[in-house]
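Journal club side-thread
Mid-discussion, someone asked how the predicted structure for our own chain would compare to the paper's figures. Pasting it here so we can look after the session.
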Amino acid sequence: MDKKTIKRILVRGPNWLGDAVMCEPALRGLRRLFPDAQITLLVKPAVADLFVGHPVLTRVLTYDAKGRHAGLSGKWALAGQLRRQGFDLAVLFQNAFEAAFLTFLAGVPRRYGYATDGRSLLLSDPVAAPDRRRLVHQVGYYWDLLKPLGLTGDPPAPELTVCPEEEQAMAGRFAQGGLTASDILIGINPGSTYGGAKRWLPERFAEATERLCRTIRESQGQQVSVVIFGAKGEERLGREIAARLSAPSLILSGATTIRELMAAVKRCSVLLTNDTGPMHIASAFQVPVVAIFGPTDWRTTSPVGSAHAIVRQPVDCAPCLLRECPIDHRCMTRVTVEQVYEACLSSLSGLNGLSRANQTDQTDQIDQKNLLEGVTVFLDRDGTLNYDPGYLRVAADLKLLTGVGPALARLRRAGARLVVVTNQSGVGRGIFTLKDLEAIHARLEGLLEQEEVALDAIYFCPHHPDDGCHCRKPNVGMVERAVSELQLDLQRAYLIGDHARDIQLAKRVGAKAVLLTTSLVDEQALEMLRAERAMPDAVAPSMTEAVDWIFTDAKMRLR
């Protein structure tokens, strides 16, 4: 694409408020690619208000799908309006078929977007959608769409703006509600327009907020007030929670425009919320967020930035992405008031005198200092992370080895990336299926999540040993794929495993190797390693000792 010929760009933005905020960095990226072009954003009314006065946009057009643009005649009228604008390029961040069809009807010559929803033939420049097995945060998903056009680097955090007049108007509204400019303001958003499954219990919202207000008053000697946000239809929920609070509160549920919501959220010292659009608005204003996640995937839609906290209880059925829970809502009912209260205290730690009730021990404090930033630890699975029964066929039979969870949590806190590489020839032998293996890995991730450990990826070789594949350890195929997909630095990599093939793989890719002796190590295999001069860099009886050695080695590298 000759960018100099692109003078007018039409952008079809996402429909949901939170998605629109997460798309904002990509809008700035588009401006970087086309610094002299006019950029027009086409979005639904609520999202349009979000981008009023945005510096990278020439103008914002409203797509009123339930009003003047409803039905085929409305679409045709909108297409005619767009046709008269003479757009050279349409960039479709919305994935729907309708977005491509509308720009096709409008005669936009270059139509650029992900090849989803059967719309490839309507796109002049279809972009292959990312592999669903590789989790990408939604901010990155929108940003990556522009990479084939030449956009480079990682996306910045979303940013939004409100004008001084809007802030002053909201300050006046706060004053009318009895909230003063000197109050520490706690924002809570207990509802969710997506569905009831995303809602934490209202009485727990109230209890956590009440405890937080009391702690701040006692430690600061300062007035604390609460602002309750919500959509239309959530007014009663707001009143129920306000009735349980002793602090002054202002209920804004169903009573703000998007612009007013933005100005109000910006004023908060912290926002306690379910997974909602206001969560992303707060993040875009650098307001610390404590977000409670249940059925939705925190890995792809969490607020961006280190100032925010995610509170969740890993359960086998989450993330299910359902609007209503068909069973007992365990992903939300297991989230405790104490967990949320502690997360809020941590987010407000910048206020003098506030600190978490439970401080980490000295070892954890040392581990937190990003010692392993940029380091990758490759992990074998059976015999390294979990007990090895031979061929593990049933997910429920997977059990972590003692100490694995806390040890891996230390690595994560220190900034390390964790990647599992495992031979699973049981698939090729017909002992279990890929579906069985997927369930086993889901259980593995679930058990580790209970220890606050998130794996970056799991790579497996399903082939029979006689297939001669490139991926079966000690061959390097799985590691090469991880390096390509995750942009890993093998010069700062470790591999922990319990077999000679793990150590051989580490030596082939240039990683440091730790041999676990959790199971019986074959002396013949050790002799083979000695003959190959591929002995491990360390031998450890457990994952705890293996991780201790990695920390020691990493500190020595820094000297």
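Post-session note: The chain has three domains: 3-149, 164-347, 362-558.
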